[in-house]
Request: fold
Amino acid sequence: MDLDWQRETLNAAIARVGQGEAGAMEIVYRQTSAKLFGICLRILGDASEAEDVLHEVYLTVWRNAGAFEASRASPITWLATIARNRAIDMLRKRRPGRHGSVDEALTVVDPAPTALAIIEDGETVGRLGRCLGELDDRQQAAVRRAFLDGRTYENLATEASVPLGTMKSWIRRALLKLRVCLEL
Amino acid sequence: MSDDNIPPVGEDAHGDVTAAEYVLGLLEGEARAVALRRLASNPGFRLEVSAWEQRLAPLLDEVAEATPPARAWDRIAASLTQADPVVPFRPRISPWNDLRVWRAATGASLAAAAAALFVIILRLAPSTPLSAAAPKAAPAVMLARLNAPSGETLFVVSVDRLRSGFTLMPVKAVAAEGHVPELWIRPAGGQPHAVAVFDDAQPRTAAAPLSLVDLASPKAVLAISLEPPGGSTTGLPTGPVIASGSLTSV
Reply:
């Protein structure tokens, strides 16, 4: 409802977590777990894996909250990005392909807790929507499937019944267009 | 680098959308591994990734919320007591609770070491606000207490990523009998890398190449082994590992 108020409460709770107050963690959890679990579930499609990732995400928050800077960052963007990255990481490890072992040796990098406010910023949300709208339908669908559902190039090519190279060039063109549009 | 195995769309650097591909999660296998390595080693790439994360984050608003089962919180709450949070160093709040342990354990002869470490922390903390530089994958200054298997702290090591150095403070002299302590760093799931050989009676700062400093992250483990003078020549510890501990940010 009142986004500013929500954001301030969350900021205050994260600041207390950053000082090692375990009780404040519960506030952060109560306010954000439905959103973060939703993200994990959407990407992983499996409640028990999503629960494992959620666990990891909040431990990451517990360890890194001290570096979070409320003045520069949107707390929910920070948390949501950690959750998405961790879920994608789990997804890629779950299906080890030809190079699975290489992948597993590396650890996902959590977003810096200094990300700028975005999610609550209506103007920015509107701009992303407008820029996505400038892409053709296939490109837009592919970008959304990748970001929201964790699809790889290969998955997307199979789903759209096009060669892998075709899918790569669709998406790369889309990303270049998107970058220009978003930076203007 | 092998991230060029995908033909670029544009002909110049601006045509490189690897950061966006990584953020979208499109990459798998070797291509993803390459991107993760770049993320660990290339600050410019990190910035790009962070910019794309921010550009695309509003899409996450479309994701439907889902209430996790009640046990999820119980499990998290139980883990919190085992995983200490990383309390950032601020002069008032300070990680002294942590450091008091080894300070108390040290004799007067080691007061100098404690003072030296204190000076290092005070000098670094105000001059390296996290907000001043680009977002980093790991904190600028990290500390590790290296404990013997008995739990006794033998060394405290600080890693300064900005100044690319490891500082080793002996807390307790270790009987070495012609051997010297050698410091190793092992990233999560990786091999140990030699950092430097130290004298166990004196604090010492060793400049380290960026490749080593980049291994210093809150999941990395530092360890001390006893080696012949000059250090292990095998690239791996040859003598007994007498103390180890993981890094936490200051």
